[in-house]
Amino acid sequence: MRAGGGYAMFAILLGDDGAELRPLEPWNAEEYLTHLDRSRDHIGRYIGLADAATDLDSARAFLQSYADKTAADGGRIYGIWLDGTLVGGVLFRTFDAPAGTCEVGCWLEESVVGRGLVTRAIRVLIDWAVNDRAIYRVEWLADSANAASIKAAKRLGMARDGVLRGSYARGGGRRDIEVWSVLAPDWRKHRETSARG
Predict the structure, then answer these.
(1) What is the SS3 string spanning the chain?
(2) pTM of the model
């Protein structure tokens, strides 16, 4: 499969709309930077991901940091490609198998919001974490003003655990973070219900 100037060795189809989930690796740095530049303001509205890659060297360093986390079983990052174009991604920001916990996150270009790409991709991550790695608690952190992220957490069957008030600085002020989570037994029930519905 030819995409982004290279071959995708491993890809998971996310549906019949041409969407694929693939590892996002340091050799993808140029494509990743181009993707961020297309929607930097949108992506950076609630998260600092776009701030970490402002040129090719910093993009490569950011992706290398996740390659290092993957090698240490401490985190992973994946891109979402739509018709061969990188349009977003999902990640395990943290992954602690001995403790049975992880945190998932996402980002998307504005042009593809509303297609269910994040929900489909995060389901793949949570299924793997719960079923293959025996993760018990999966967390999702969302800026309280990020309605789309909170809706995604709800679609994924997550429960709102609470709010970390004034948790981080962004856009010249302090922002609140909502903590959402799903536990392994609840995830399995959610998936069974979704499969029947």
Answers:
(1) CEECCEECCCCEECCCCCEEEEECCHHHHHHHHHHHHHCHHHHCCCCCHHHHCCCHHHHHHHHHHHHHHHHCCCCEEEEEEECCEEEEEEEEEEEECCCCEEEEEEEECHHHCCCCHHHHHHHHHHHHHHHHCCCCEEEEEEECCCHHHHHHHHHCCCEEEEEEEEEEEECCEEEEEEEEEEEHHHHHHHHHHHHHC
(2) 0.90
